[in-house]
Design brief:
With about 375 residues, this protein is α/β, with parallel strands linked by helices. Helices cover about 35% and strands about 15% of the residues. The protein folds into 2 domains: about 5-250, Type I PLP-dependent aspartate aminotransferase-like (Major domain) (Aspartate Aminotransferase, domain 2, 3-Layer(aba) Sandwich), CATH 3.40.640; about 250-375, Aspartate Aminotransferase, domain 1 (Alpha-Beta Complex). The chain binds pyridoxal-5'-phosphate.
Length: about 375
């Protein structure tokens, strides 16, 4: 079965006469548990919920695949109240005082701050390096290699298979923050990673109205650790959010295909314009990581970044682009962009813009972007 069919079918309930195709959310705190509670996973909703299970089954299928050796595996997924709750679960379940974590110096800002301000003072050593080879050199004695490819907002590409192999040789586990591409765009577990972590608030659910995250694994022991972390810390996703997420995922194949096509066309347009100092999109032949991205990704993702002359040019462009909503985050059906430096935290120039292509008609987007660029000539 092709991926789009598999994803759409995975959101359906089993065929039971008279039952809905998509059962509604299950609202519960405790469940009936007369006698021995071990006969059901559903005892108290901080641990498990049937709506989570439906969502986790669908995500688990997406994260499943074939390793480089040709061996097939079935992934399992655990859903969380946010992407950061999912990141925290991996850090918390894996890292102990004395452990070393290697992460990109431009890793997602909030994850970096969490490690620096909470895990480092508790005895975890952080080794930061630029994406790619620099990370491979820091793996000696490490417990965890954290990757993000493409990185947000720099759009740098890491060779996940190569770095996973190097990390495993050094005895480290590998986690990939796969938020930008989604598991339809890239399957980190198939490339050798031990954890695929994501904020599903972005392209995965794509309507800019949900906070949700997940961790997927191949190994049942790692699954059990992450599951226990979630129950102990209470990073529980609401059933309504889980249900909306499942509904949203059914349209991921349609949305991702369109938004990635749009991103490619926008990147190509920007690359021809003299107002634009540089464009970073893994789908461009000029991107330094293009060959690796082509090998490890199914889609190059909906997000690109580009640099205009300065703060004023970037602000003017965003004001004059009528079809680009000035907002943070990415991966929605609406095209959005923001001048990244206004937040601080990322080492980017003042004129740096991160743009997330939506699902609008590309002709409208290209016309609008061209006229907004004309205004900053
Ligand atoms: C948004 C994001 C997160 C955090 O996810 P939330 O759902 O906002 O908690 C983590 N990593 C990346 C790459 C992100 O873009």
């Amino acid at each position: 079965m092709r991926e789009a069919t598999r994803i759409i079918r995975s959101t359906l309930s089993p065929t039971v006469p008279g039952e809905p195709l998509h059962p509604g959310p299950v609202f519960a705190a405790p469940y009936h548990t007369p006698g021995d509670p071990s006969s059901t996973p559903y005892t108290y909703a901080r641990s498990h919920n049937p709506t989570w299970t439906a969502l986790e089954d669908a995500i688990g299928q997406m994260e499943s695949g074939q390793l480089g050796t040709g061996e097939s595996y079935c992934a399992t997924a655990l859903v969380f109240a946010s992407g950061m709750a999912a990141c925290t679960a991996v850090f918390g379940a894996v890292l102990r005082p004395g452990d070393v974590v290697v992460l990109p110096s431009n890793a997602y800002y909030t994850a970096r701050v969490l490690l620096q301000q909470y895990f480092a003072p508790m005895g975890v050593t952080l080794r930061l390096a630029g994406a790619g080879d620099a990370q491979a050199e820091l793996l000696q004695g490490a417990r965890l290699l954290w990757l993000e490819s493409p990185s947000n907002p720099g759009m740098e590409i890491s060779d996940i298979a190569l770095l996973s192999e190097a990390a495993h040789r050094a005895g480290a586990l590998v986690a990939v923050d796969n938020t930008t591409p989604t598991p339809l765009g890239q399957i980190p577990l198939a490339l050798g990673a031990d954890f695929s972590v994501a904020s599903d608030a972005k392209a995965m659910t794509g309507h800019s109205d949900l906070l949700v995250g997940h961790v997927a694994v191949r190994d049942p022991e790692l699954h059990a650790k992450i599951d226990q972390w979630r129950t102990l810390t209470g990073a529980a996703l609401g059933p309504m959010e889980a249900w909306l997420a499942l509904r949203s995922i059914a349209t991921l194949p349609l949305r991702l295909e369109r938004s990635c096509e749009n991103a490619q066309r926008i990147a190509e347009l920007l690359a021809t314009r003299s107002e634009v100092a540089s464009v970073m999109y893994p789908g461009l032949l000029t991107h330094p990581g293009h060959a690796i991205a082509k090998r490890q990704m199914r889609y190059f993702g909906p997000v690109l970044s580009f640099t205009l002359r300065d703060k004023i040019s970037a602000d003017t462009f965003l004001t004059n682009a009528k079809l680009i909503t000035d907002a943070t985050s990415f991966g929605g059906i609406t095209t959005t962009a923001e001048r990244r430096a206004k937040w601080g935290g990322d080492a980017v120039p003042d004129g740096f813009i991160r743009l997330s292509a939506g699902c609008e008609a590309i002709e409208d987007l290209l016309e609008d972007i061209a006229q907004a660029l004309d205004t900053i000539r």
